[in-house]
Amino acid sequence: xLTELVKPGDKIEVQAVEGAILGGKAGDKKxxxxxxxxxxxxxxxxxxxxMDGTKLxxxxxDGEYQFCFYTRKGLYQCFIRxxxxxxxxxxxxxxxxxxxxxxxxxxxxxxxxxCSLPIKTRELLDEExxxxxxLKYHMWVGIPLTKGNIVDISGGGIRxxxxxxxxxxxxxxxxxxxxxHGKEEAYELVxxxxxxRSNEVRKGEYExxxxxxxxxxxxxxxxIRYIFEEERKSRRRIANVGDL
Length: 244
Known about the structure:
This protein has helices at about 1-5, 125-135, 215-244; strands at about 10-15, 30-40, 45-50, 50, 55, 65-70, 75-90, 90-100, 105, 115-125, 145-155, 155-160, 170-180, 185-200, 205-215. By secondary structure, the chain is of the alpha+beta class.
């Protein structure tokens, strides 16, 4: 089953089964990302050692973790135990064995990718909100939008800073672009303000957490693909620096 579903290069999210990784506080839910290095058989696989920024996360041998695999057939999960740590072709590897069957994962949250991207937003008009309820939404043109900056993005939403203070629950128009394979792809989406607070670093600005409420499956998949590609680029840059 593992060899049929999971392939080298597939992205993984790693979370400790009990407590936190490397002696953190109990209940810590921090998730680390990695990718499959090789699938040895249906019970064993090699993964690249997870990283937090430029720091390797040395998962201890015999530690037990929950893996979420991003495969070509969707999201799958299982529990694993770290069997061994070693280095292969200048890549730090973890040998892992499954301690549970691999199964389909119905994900509730999306991995958030830290970034810095320009964004334009504005509060929706009452007419637009009514049209949205009837699934007949279209963005009215000619209405000015306010510039801001995205600080993290996922398939489910964004976190951004803006000089505008939005009220929680407000529906907003969202415009931003992603560089996909050397081409700028524009996105015009709708989101709901989940949380809003003053920016602790820059006075006069506000930080907003937003859930996408109007987004197609294709757009969501494109955003997730963008995140994966940017992470791969980051890993390659780190690997090249390590070779110097």
